[in-house]
Design goal:
The chain has 359 residues and is of the alpha/beta class. It has a single domain, classed as TIM Barrel, CATH 3.20.20.70. The chain has eleven helices and twelve strands. The protein is globular, with a radius of gyration of 19 Å. It starts with 6 loop residues before the first strand and ends in a 32-residue tail after the last helix. The model has no long low-confidence stretch (mean pLDDT 94). The structure holds flavin mononucleotide and iron/sulfur cluster (SF4). The site of flavin mononucleotide (FMN) has 25 residues, from strand 4 and helix 10.
Length: 359
Amino acid sequence: MKVFKKNKLGSIELKNRFVRSAAGSGVASKEGFVTYEVKDWYRKVASGGAGLLITEMMTVWDDSNFPEYYLRVDDDKYIKGLKELADISHSYRSGIVAQIGNYGSLLHWEPNKIPVGPSNVKDAISCIEPHALSEIEINDLVNYFIEAAKRVKEADFDGVQVHAAHGFLLNKFINPYYNNRKDRYGGSTENRSRIIVEIVDGIKKACGKDFLVLLKLNSDDYVNESYGFKFDEARKVASYLSNKGFDGYEITSGLAGGRISPARPLDEEAYNLKHAKIISEENNLPVILVGGIRSLTLAEKILNETSINSIGMTRALTYKPDLINEWMNGEQVSKCIACNKCFVTDGQLCIFNINKEAI
Ligand SMILES: Cc1cc2nc3c(=O)[nH]c(=O)nc-3n(C[C@H](O)[C@H](O)[C@H](O)COP(=O)(O)O)c2cc1C
Ligand code: SF4
């Protein structure tokens, strides 16, 4: 089957086309270090068969706006623990990339500190009015992304994924509703995408062309038209960024904490397929499709009938980290019921696995 065949993203060889998409663990130390529990989780997912693992979003900047107990990469002190994650993944012949980003105004973790945004437009979900970054602060932020990528490289990761989806800071930059800047970071699609171009360009220069750099992009926020990022704009951004240095896109949708979550509660399979297919056809870049995929038959069909490169899954592998190995011996539909309770359990475990000694 195509889905089990070797794959290449950028210059990274992968044993198959399954990607474990980003998943917050909530079991890092309070200060964001890798713990025994984080390693255990990565061991389970890597040994379960995914060709590529993507970490949870790690903060690149100590701006106080990030949760405790989640991985961080804003300081050299995190490199040692992250290297252990890379070693675990590689020991099972799985690639690993670190998702890097900033929360912006959507989720607010530090009441005494105002989150940042492209402009001071009140967030329609959190109702927070962010501090509009100055050009100097944008330049600093770009450098935080680059420094974080350098740490990730030092930790032997295969690359990074820049998080520009789910309503977080970079998603806000490309959204014309939230970005009303009049300088070179606002206005046209090109200007709103400039910060992302500067990030990928800086990372490639600092880490080398073989260091994988992926972009997680919303194809649609699926919220009110007046403030949501819509597919027509996503399409323009994807097209504009397609020759700016990225090695691939992961196409997702929805807002973290919004009415339409990135992980839909409905029993809907491959809900980003329509948009991901168009983005894949229009651009000469590999596309990872994520969102609601829970069956081998569908995964294989998508790869055979479209130009989509890889299949991303989070919840199906939270329910059963060794699902991919099991699929090698035949079909079975994941029993994940898409209830999204793993967002709120301790350690972001599947409700069906809590209290089980071994998943
Ligand atoms: C518990 C949990 C944590 C998540 N954490 C992240 C994250 O840190 N970064 C991210 O881009 N997406 C995150 N997601 C979204 C997933 O990467 C994925 O886009 C979404 O769950 C849809 O895919 P699925 O249907 O295969 O679960 C998370 C999802 C879940 C369920
Ligand atoms: S809690 Fe379990 S069943 Fe519910 S969405 Fe998460 S992985 Fe699936």
